[in-house]
Records
---
Amino acid sequence: MNRSTLKGLVWLGIILSLATPLIYSLKAVYPLSSARAFFFMGAVQLTLFFWIMLATKYKEYRPELNIVNGSVALFMLISVLSGIFGIDPLCSFWSTYGRVFGLLTQIHVFVFFLILSSFLRSKEDWTKLIVWIASVASVVSLISIFNVFNIFESPAFFKNGSTLGNTSFMGSYLLVAIFIILFGLGKSEKKLSLYFAITSVIVTLGIVTNPGGRAMKGGFIIGLALFILSRLAFDTDKKIIKSLARIALAFGLILAIFLGITAFIEGHPVREEIKSFHGMTARFVVWDIAWQGFKERPLLGVGPENFRLVFEKRFDPRLKVMDDGDLWFDRAHNVVFDNLVSVGIIGTVSYFLMFLTTLSVFWREYFKDKDDIRASAAFTSLFAAHFVQNLTVFDTISSYMLIFVVFAFASSSLKKNDSVGEVKGSKALPIISFLIILITLNLFVVTPFKKSLFIRDAMTTRPEDKTIESFEKGLSGPMGKDDLISLVIDDFIIKNKEDDPTEEEKERVLEKIHFLINKAE
């Protein structure tokens, strides 16, 4: 294949990967999260093959060592080590069908980052990428807006959270997307400015009309204020406005530090006010559990996706009597505590180092040229909004991959290899890569997704005479055992309340539960 064909195929893979928020499958055990994650991993693996072929022949598409690449690679390395030496390495790697956010997914996100940072080389390339991000985010936002205002009847699972099925998850995705679009709006030519202006309005409406997403809305307001103040503080010739904006930024930073400290002082009015919000009392209990778990394994943590083990070990009975809280958590619902308990202090420092190195690239470019604050303002605001939102929720693959898009953008701006031309590469490498990707695609994407279909079939088939057989097929792999017991029990409780099942039907469900417990053991 020539350069043009290979570039086109890599572009196709990137476009498919970024379409992940639109993907769902009603035949999968978790129609939204599992289908979406497996789709993303499949798209990344196919993109990887064509990128390897391209980079083999043209060295300008090969990754280079720089501060951003190094920080992202460091975080991945520590996460892998944490998983290996954690409580449950198998779960750390595979995760569960409900999340599909283990090391397997993290590695695919890392590969996605390497492809973007190496392949996208020009302003035009990145503009095309932002156009596509804006398009996908607009579709997600429009579906939500139409639902909120009853413009058309959509599937039940779109009612809260559009295609992402959850108001918080949709909010996380749109929150990251809007600041990327705002950056594109500031950097684009006139012919694209109108498109970015329209899509920014659509996505903003999706954010403000979101039926939930309280943390996202708070993060959006703070991020937008930071974006405006940053532009005024560094990108205006009026000295009075510049001084006032800088004073406001300094005051905001001091206020944020004050609120962050007082929120964890027992009995402080700020803490009590925060706890008065719906669901926050339970959050503080869970954060205390996470802190105790961190102190047991402070360096590398318990391993990614293993928070549920810490929670179950240290379950606090107070959660049972809290009207505003859930009873079971597999996340700490806080970006700091989630990282501390999962990957320890070393992993947590490396996680935030990715953000700091990325911002250092943008701000260094600004202080070097003194003529373009847009990237620094947009992405500083994005990271601040993302952090504020993730103080009470967490990322999914849809929002997480966009964060790594920003990392990749910073990395690509540091590329030094400008040589263009074909080089003599290894003829065997593409063949070997093709065979390896065929194996990994089947092992890590196709097979587990097929098994999720069997599990879904077992959960929904009526009559239930073949459900155990379907469970056998679905649970023959490493995923699904940890989260399906509660899924079946919840299903049984709901049906017991609504359908008044017969004794025979109850026996069948209990048979399922007994089977799953034995499998989990």
Note: The two ends are 50 Å apart (CA to CA).
---
Amino acid sequence: MAAPFAAKAQQDGGSLPPVVVAPPKPAERPGVAPRRKTSQAARTRRQVNRQPGPVAASGAGTSAPTNDPFDRVVVTPTGRPERQSEIAGTTQVIDQETIQRSAARSLTDLLAENAVGFFSEWTPGQTSINIRGGATDGQGKDFKGQVAVLINGRRAGTANLSKLSPADVERIEVVRGPASVIYGSQNIGGVINIIMKTGRTAPGTLVEGTTGSWNLIQGRAQTGGVYEGFDYYLGVSGGKRDDYHVGGSGRREINTDWKRQGIAGAFGWQLNPDHRVELQVRHDGIYDAGFRGSGANYLSRDDRYNGSVEASYSGKTPDGTASWFTQFYAVSDTDRFKWASPVIRNGNLPGRGTAADWNTRNLDILGTRVQPRFQLFHGNELLLGWDWEESTLRNDRFRVGVPGNPLSQVSPQDNNQRDHFHALYAEDTQRLFDERLILRAGIRQTWGVTKFETTPYLTGAKPNSRDYEATTYSVGATAKATDWLSFRIGASSGFRAPTATELAADYTTLGGGRIFGSATLKPETSDQIEAGATLSGRGWRLDGAVFQNIIHDRITTRLRTGQANTSDYVNNPGDVFVRGVELQYDQDMLTLLGIGSDLWRWKTYANGNYNFDMKDKGSLTIASANTHNVERVYRYQAAIGTRFGTSGTAHDWTIQVQGVFRGPVYYNTEENLLVPATEPYREYIWKKSPFATVNVRGEIALAKDVQLYVQVTNLFDVNNHPLFIANDKYPVIADTRFFNGGIGTSMPGRDIQVGLKARF
């Protein structure tokens, strides 16, 4: 039954994914018939149809054939499968091969080593992201983020990628800037769409185990397949590691250990050639993870986990002129902070702090989206959409003071809130001149209500609600000038709605400060323009873009005049400007050199950006600001790698070398440094110097479908950190009176891992 379904889908222009995926080579899996030869057009349509993720299920597959092997099909920018060369914005893809050959233990590690943007990498369980000036919250609160983190095209429920494992991820698509109208609040700096595996994209069985430095034990098992009209996938993963050692000195970095576990399942049913339903469930988290933070704290620990269930239905009319996609999802995200700060800052002197300061944050989300599409006439496609979502945030906090410091209970760091929104949007695409020119335009209108609700220990607060609305747009065009050169240009906008905490906060921070909300806050917004070009030749592809992203009305805190340690949430009147260039390069070296070989494989790749103008106009009003550069944004960064090996032999082998270069970043550190011995004054903004790391991986097939690999991360044992100024090394530049045990925080030193992977 499966083969006719796939053939019919291809005859109809591929508007539905076929039930079968490309079978492995007969030499790799016994009992599989040889593949019939197909035309380039059929192979292209098949590639479009196979894209994973619910948004791809209704893909029109109208793209024309291409001979460019690096012109990937993506689903995130426009909500349906299209080639990167046809998209008006910049999209970066981290594919399955890249994920499999990475030593990353979390999605933060994976994205950081591919130079996606700036990642703070606070701890093994926590990160924040910055893409084109848009940042997420340091504690992973996705409702405060300016970068939209998605799973299968819908809200992930967390902006903290460190709690998510790459074990069950098929690929990741990153849209730079607010390049689409189909995603709502938080789409200011970009979109990260995590697309999970299914039985169609990950058939067969895989078992993998890894051991390595600092008592690392990590493993995963997954199985998937297709039977007639049904497909299934199940994956389990887990691991643990003790405290790592820093580079150079090799000293133990106390309180950096962690445990991780996750499970994922997917089920699909192709009802007939025109209709398909899918169900996906998953749960992933990092537990008992050490939290050193800016205070290099030995005592604080975290549990952070995220789970979801989603169901989708896609279909089309027999003639393919209309198609539709419907998705329902439920998400639960939990952070349990088991913190303690025995010493806190009291003016310029150490003060008595907490023996325990436990915070729990639970975010529950229910949502749905409906996306019908119509081919109104030749070359035209109209996408319509309706999104609805309701989220509930619940918080609790419990404090115990150190001896001699009796403490009363205070409100948590977030207020209880309920958020409801719905949105209508439309995007029209017109293909002209044999699809060499593609025009796009879209608009989205979002209406929402944020309700501030009763919060524990928040005395005197009155529950209330606040309506908000936002209009966002995107326009763009791509033009194929020649077979080897294409251009694109686009403009778009994004927004982030204020939270109940920002509207009505009254809480005490860990350091003893107090922050109040403001009912007059406006949504944050952004406006972006971008122009780019793609050049491709025999065995290579270069993509470049120049962009400007401006962020308005940022919600931030401001100290009250005349009141020590007291702040208010305000809209910063100064905009953030980020202007830069971005490059992506892929190259098949043997093809480029004109060497044809069935035995050897040699590829190189690179990704990087240079922000030649970064200005925070809000800092112009701060007398103590020693720079007006945007904080927590790399001035420049790059990831460059090469992979060389054999293919088709009994013992295929590959060696991969990758360099990750992290350019300077500006940061008004939260660390307590020696003043004036280390920094001139507390509000001094640092320019953290650039540094580079090198990763190496080698692998060899021991037997058919059994592979041994060895990988070394941070080969040259660099002692540094993407964010922190006070590294764990001598001479000590931290004011250790306030550090609760540490002298600074460094990233892991040389990390050696050995693993075995078997496929069935």
Note: The chain has a mean pLDDT of 87.
---
Amino acid sequence: MAYSGQIAEVVVGVSGLTGTKNQATIQPTQLLQANNITYESVTMRKEGGASKFNASAISGTPNIMGGWDWNHDGATQRSIIVATNGKIYKDAGDGSYGTELKTGLSISVTNIPVFVEGGKEAAANDRKLFIFTGSNQVQVLDADGAATGDIATPPADWSSNYPTFGFNHEGRVWGGGNSNDPHRLYYPKTTNHEDFSDEKSLSIYPGEGQGIVGALSFKGVIVCWKKPRGIYVVDTTDPTIANWKISRLSNSIGGISPMGACIVDDDIIFLDATGAFHRISDVREFGNLGTFSLSDVSDMNPFIRENFNLAKLSQVQSVFYTAKREAHFAMAGTGASVPSHRTVIDISNPQLPRFRVSARDTPVSLWLKEDSDGIPRLTSGDDSGQVWDLDTEARSFDGVGYEGRFQTPHLDLGNIDPSLSAKRKNFDFLELVVEPKGNWNLSVDVIIDGDTSETLQFNMGASGAALGSFTFDTDALGGFQILNKKKSMNGSGTRISFEGYNSGDAQDYSVAKFLLYFRPAGEEPGS
């Protein structure tokens, strides 16, 4: 017998996480919770797992403050890390970090290492890796050397006031952020990236802000951020240095950290001093750059204020994970002294950036490291001497399960029929459209008018559900198999929300949508 009530489609996660407190403004496609999940495959899925890269933690379990995937000749892959024990390590590929490139450095949890690739000024020259730490002279690794050394000829200003950031732009390795002149960018000779003997530099609006905290090379110009306010653009496209132009992009927002911005395709995403995320785009029709608030799209500001330690924003590190089209920002949660969460912005659809959060790891540092297929994969260093390969296929955190949780809005179903908004509804069935992942359950809490009424268990294995006179079983849709899983429900009310989760080791799920079977109060039940 066919069901005689109504069926509402609840599409989960299409618009990502929202932080708004106004229930009336939440879209049916947004989420109230999105922890340790991902939007890949156009479904709601638990995010990839994590495995240890170094089997044994670095001696003394220091914080891993930064890392870099270094391949100086296209055939010799090394992992370089900087730790709070004052050492720079090199790994030969076995995860042992057996080579100490440098010892005796001053490295604390406030030092954010910035790695810049340079050298190769002429065909016969080695490639070099420059490491900026802010409390030490810039370190330089020649090719696959066994030690780093101080940069050969730094600017005089860097003799005891060391730069906090660097970047490669137009054939030069630039630097800045030194405390004695924090509004200045320095650049070397094009023929030698270690030679600043000409003392060439640019003063960037020195009367504004506290100083430059970071800069990037973007679309042929330099974009730099000051704290707490100020974004500036240096146009170096003219071959004559005297014709370079410095302009202000914004004097109302600024940056927060040397690693607080990352380039994502044709845009830059950065975090400001209030914890808000912004995007800088190349506005071709106007011939300049434009800014746009990403946080405002999903009203994320209340969420950031409540869940993160804004006093630790200067420790933020970010990276663009190209393989998944995601910008990852390592941030300290409320009460944490080092980054304990990743705030992730999915831009697989550039017109609809989607936020989510991962609270599983302790990502003190973030970088990308090529896997065996040559794909740069997300990597992190934690607060106990461990380097982690993230987004692994197995949904396991070093052999331990972790929870992936999401929650839909409290829906009154007025989105399908405005007359339903104020009506009480009787809820009969819940059906999930899923991609089969294994013989375990996805738990779904049913929340009616703010109270949890029951928890339904949906097996994520490969068996179908009988519906009426026919059966939905394994079928193909969009390149993957789908199943329909249906459970009876109890309860009635005006609003309903669903909270899905599981936490077992290697347990995954992939949910496309929910189908809610209901009747306005007073109607007879169907089947």
Note: The CA atoms of residues 94 and 273 lie 39 Å apart.
---
Amino acid sequence: MTFLNSPLLWTIAGAIGVAVPVIIHLLHQRHRRHTDWAAMELLRRALVVRSGQVKLEDILLLLLRCLVLALVAFALVRPTLEDQAEGGLLGEQRVGMVIAIDASFSMDHGKYDTRMEEARQRVSKILETAKEGDPITIVLMAESPRTLLRGANFNLDRCNDALEKAEVFPERFNLERATVELATLVDELKGSVKECYLVTDAQAVDWANFSKEAANGLETLARKSKLFLVPVETEGRENLAITDFSYASGSLGPGGLSRFTAEVSNFGLQTHDGGSISLSVNDRNGTPRSFGPIKPGESRLIDFYPDLDLSGDANLTASLGRNDDALAIDNRRMASVRVSDRIRILCIDGEPFAGDGPGETFWLRKALELNQLGDDASIEVVVTDWQETDPSAIGEYDLVFAANVEEVDSSIARSLDSFVRKGGGLVLFAGDRMDLPSYNENLGGLLPGELIGISAFGEGSETVGDSPGENSWTLAEPTSSHVLSQLTRTMPQEGRDAVRFRKSMEIRPDDNATIVLSLSGNGSPLVLEKQVDSGSVLFFATTADRDWSNLVVHPLFPMLMQQSITHLTNRPEAGRAGNLNPSESDLGQASAESLEEALSPLNAVVIPIAANLGGIVKETRKGTEISRTLLILALLVFLLQGYLARLFTNRMTSKGESSLQESLRKHTVVAARRT
């Protein structure tokens, strides 16, 4: 037995109600005044014969009146017999339904009828089992739930109007968030039976392996209601989609050459014959490019080299041609980039030129100004001594490079923090002059980790640049998807092995930091990146000169610096927020058998597509509310106690005695029973 209202609240109220007549009876007995007078002895003798019978009659009436109040309180709790089917004599059945429809973009699949249209038909079958007045909630499930109808009394026309508004969203199916919202909606239902229906295409990516959070959410739903999983499907699962489109490499400045890469994937079970893909820039369509056959489960990369000579924001869209794809929503993908006429870079030199050799930023400046020609240069580099840096001027630049700066005072730290959070790019190079406690304390929010100390390899070697010998590290195999890692991977292994490192700065990476490049042997990070609000910080665990490595005189260094400029000033991934989650493009569905096995611990019902949905629902529907029966019973008991009270009172005076003693006895008993 379950209760629709709070048992504790109404139990307390019922207990108080039952206690009232008992308390009144006890108080009446306690405060009765005894006055002895001459005729009292005669009256007492007349009553002693019937006093035992009167007490029994009074106790019976008291119990019946207490029972009336107890039945009313119990009815207000709205108890439900869970194993009682509809049509029982004990009460009525009121069914509350929460119908959740999968509205992720995979539900738009289908050459003729889409999965969403099939879902509407399945929901209509569910609604046929409802009765007028049953509370109904209809909600759409995607990345976040959208409620179409909330706790409304069932009306077929109103429900059909809500179903017509059901649409597919360009979002994935978030089972974890859906279960939390559905549990709240189930709690709001008032009915002897609570049912929750999940109408979905049951994609394997969502239902084959639940996350722990999703499993807990489904368990909560199954505990609060009868849980039904209602799969839908359409013919076939063939689908071709653009799963990635992003900036790959190159310069985004005027006159620069940039490369964007689109990934086309075949999620179907048959080989796709191929098709065409085109790139549009600011709504200017480009020439379509053809691609050949793609086998099931395979992907094809297509490169584009768009013309981005105009400054400002550029919106790029890669689109598949018409190829009779049954799911068109994932056939396009977007990226946004920012093209600047001129990029201003501030280089803070921690060890300026002192007459005995180049300064700390000598090689760095050459790499940043590579191929820049006089006034036509798109990159302007300004070098300043770290002790003469004006904190208020930092915001005038697009990028800030700092090389082996001894310490960062609080004013510089505040300016750099504000600069990065507003979208600026900061690049830090290590060195032996750095005051590590100062960095960790003042730049802790920007650094991609905690600076530990300097690690040396081969203490006997004095130089690394020209004859490194064997006492040095090399670059580890790049494995990150970061653009700098991908750029390094394009260099032959022999070229990467020629970069040698004798010292490096040890750093303990933060959880949200990205390790871009590492050193071989010890695996310590060499290049790290950390996102800070709208900006980013790159940290190089080596110097910007030749003291610790020969990186600055290796061809890889100017490539890394030019790519860093493009990466930090553009932030291409910011324009990809509106793209679809590619996992939703995999239309493979979990089998009914696997779903039943996964949901069996929850006692949930999986309704096969070919099964009689309405019949299964009615067969499993149990739960009858007995409140009305209890109220009727309370009324009958109330009438019974009234009848008995009148019967007992009349019987006492049925002998027709009219003596003073009998008259007083009658009025005393009647007054007590009325009280």
Note: The longest helix spans residues 51-76.
